[in-house]
Design goal:
Blueprint lengths: L8 E3 L3 E5 L7 E7 L7 E8 L4 E5 L5 E10 L7 E3 L4 E4 L2 E4 L9 E4 L4 E6 L12 E9 L3 E7 L7 E8 L4 E5 L5 E11 L2 E7 L4 E3 L5 E3 L8 E3 L5 E6 L5 E3 L3 E9 L3 E7 L7 E8 L4 E5 L5 E10 L7 E3 L4 E4 L2 E2 L13 E2 L4 E6 L12 E9 L3 E7 L7 E8 L4 E5 L5 E11 L7 E3 L4 E3 L4 E4 L8 E4 L4
Parallel strand pairs: 1-8, 22-29
Antiparallel strand pairs: 2-5, 3-4, 3-6, 6-7, 6-8, 9-10, 11-12, 12-15, 13-14, 13-16, 16-17, 16-18, 19-20, 21-23, 23-26, 24-25, 24-27, 27-28, 27-29, 30-31, 32-33, 33-36, 34-35, 34-37, 37-38, 37-39, 40-41
Length: about 475
């Protein structure tokens, strides 16, 4: 099989040439497939093998998994060949331009089709049941499309509408009863080619339906605030922030149809929670919080519906940092008293041992060295098993010294020793470890006869 042999784009309805070579075969059969060879459809039952060409009117439907196969009529199961890889059968676009504008010369160029969902697409959308929402898209060379929705991140789909004009670029959807917390998606598909489709990049929210009847008003039956769902969303801190101890920061949230909320924080990623405020108005959406004096890189804030604390609540998406505030006094001039309590970035970098080539002998003094920024005191630890466990060497060392003299103790390790230097006040967030493990050889006492004060003399720690 010479052509099509993979990668071609043929417009359906166009005439294309199937080409092959054959040796000592009288007649061949031609078939094509639109599904990668799972099934085959007859093109011609018998063509002279020596011809090597056949003019084929390309059929529909559109496919990106098309193949052509040529078989010996007398030995079709054993002597045959097919396209090496798939080719495309697509829709025809007649471009008339040969001798001048619209002179009748149609050129069947297979233009590519595409669909791109514009909205909902960011994951920030909240669409309420019973409300009208606009599904938006861009498309190229698509006539009709089908619209589907999912509430479980695409595990299953339901039909919203079919055969919608693609060129409109918009569809107004009356949101149905489909509760989904950040797991709703919209999918658009070319009606003539299911391989041309696009889905929302991120899951959006359709809140749980809630009906609230407000007494007192015209035509009071009562009036119904339809789908005023009980929902809370923490806006700030929502992950990645660096807040200084004892600074005042704003906790921000949105709350729909919730009268009062409870505020809490955690310093251990939600394992335990500490009260900030037992009762705040839900619709204020903001609270001035005096950040506590507990340095941590695993802080989170939680906002709960006071009446439904176990089911209606939200927490920071990821952890944020509570750090030691560094007073930077510079407002009106040098040392004018204006305290700028912002968490400055603190760093530690181990300098030695760091290459893995170091060999430190037990009983010998060695230098552990490091560089740092905005760290007052450090703790120093050692591991003899590539960091699986750690032992303390010393604590509360002045970080500004940049080095520490250690008398190597009996934690021998053949190529598995590491040193770790940590900010004493912020050890989880600010620390560094040797880049590569080094060696502390096993202690060996070598008694060599025949030297001064021979008792014998001891070659202490003479390696292995």
């Amino acid at each position: 099989m010479l052509s099509p042999n993979g990668g071609e784009s043929y417009a359906n309805g166009s005439v294309q040439v199937i080409q092959w070579i054959s040796n000592t075969i009288d007649n061949i059969r031609l078939d094509y497939s639109t599904n990668g060879g799972s099934t085959w459809t007859l093109v011609s039952p018998s063509e002279p093998g020596m011809n090597g060409v056949y003019s084929w009117t390309v059929p529909g439907p559109a496919s990106v998994q098309a193949l052509v196969r040529a078989s010996d009529v007398l030995n079709s199961t054993t002597i045959r060949d097919q396209s090496n890889s798939t080719f495309v059968i697509g829709s025809v676009l007649a471009d008339k331009y040969f001798g001048g504008s619209y002179d009748g010369h149609a050129v069947n160029v297979n233009q590519s089709a595409s669909i791109t969902v514009v909205s909902p697409n960011t994951g920030s959308e909240v669409w309420y049941e019973g409300n009208q929402a606009s599904i938006l898209w861009n498309s190229t060379n698509v006539v009709l499309l089908d619209i589907e929705g999912s509430t479980n991140n695409g595990s299953s789909w339901f039909v919203i509408d079919t055969a919608v004009t693609a060129g409109s670029g918009a569809y107004t959807w009356q949101v149905g009863s489909y509760a989904a917390q950040s797991s709703a998606l919209i999918r658009l598909t070319d009606r003539s080619n299911v391989l041309i489709r696009d889905t929302s990049n991120l899951g959006f929210t359709i809140p749980l339906y809630s009906q609230v009847k407000n007494q007192g008003g015209g035509q009071d039956g009562w009036s119904q605030d339809v789908n005023a769902a009980n929902i809370i969303q923490v806006l700030s801190p929502n992950g990645g922030e660096m807040w200084a101890e004892n600074s005042v920061q704003q906790i921000q949230w949105t709350a729909n149809n919730i009268s009062n909320v409870r505020l809490e924080y955690s310093t251990n990623n939600g394992s335990n929670w500490i009260l900030i405020s037992a009762n705040e108005a839900g619709n204020t959406g903001s609270y001035s919080w005096l950040v506590p004096s507990t340095a941590t890189g695993s802080a989170r804030v939680r906002v709960l519906d006071l009446l439904n604390q176990s089911t209606v609540r939200d927490i920071s998406d990821t952890t944020f940092v509570i750090g030691i505030g560094i007073a930077d006094k510079y407002y009106g001039g040098s040392y004018d008293g204006a305290d700028f309590g912002t968490v400055q970035q603190s760093t530690i970098t181990v300098v030695s041992p760091n290459t893995g080539s170091e060999v430190w002998y037990e009983g010998n003094p060695v230098i552990i060295s490091w560089t740092n920024n905005n760290v007052s005191l450090v703790n120093i630890e050692i591991s003899s098993n590539n960091g699986s466990t750690w032992l303390t060497i010393d604590t509360s060392i002045s970080a500004g010294l940049g080095q520490y003299t250690w008398i190597v103790s009996g934690n021998y390790s053949q190529g598995q020793a590491l040193i770790r230097v940590s900010d004493r006040d912020f050890p989880i967030v600010t620390r560094d470890t040797s880049n590569a493990p080094f060696t502390i050889p096993q202690y060996v006492q070598d008694k060599n006869r025949g030297g001064q004060e021979d008792g014998y003399s001891q070659g202490v720690n003479a390696g292995y």
